[in-house]
Amino acid sequence: MKTAKKLLILIFYLGFVNSTLGQVLVDEKNQTPQELYDFHISKKKSNNTSAWITLGGGVAMIIGGIGINLSGGIIDNDTTNNNKGLWLSYLGGATTLVSIPLFVSAGKHKKKAKIQLKNGAVGFENEINYLGVAIAFSF
Hints:
By secondary structure, the chain is mainly α. Helices cover 70% and strands 0% of the residues. Helix 2 (33-76) runs antiparallel to helix 3 (86-118). It is flat.
């Protein structure tokens, strides 16, 4: 039994060391402002998308759990046990709360991207002005 424990500990240790040594830290000092801007914008978009998906899934679970609770007595005429969807509602509430840090992280990346934009990034921030002459022909 002791050898099995030692073997499991060794396997977990080697797996941990292998994964931690394989990670590479990104040095932000060697990147251009454009690369940092693109990185933060992509992180903002991915965090925002995952936050909205998490929020929508949580709200759907809450509504589904409430719907199961309300329809419990209607479908099988059992009015004594209306807690069938209670856990689904709880899980939906927890999932909805998980979306908050994702929204916060997206906001932080948006601020960092704006800082990089001010530091000399080439990217645009939803404001592109075109100068030109328009000609319209009416027939």
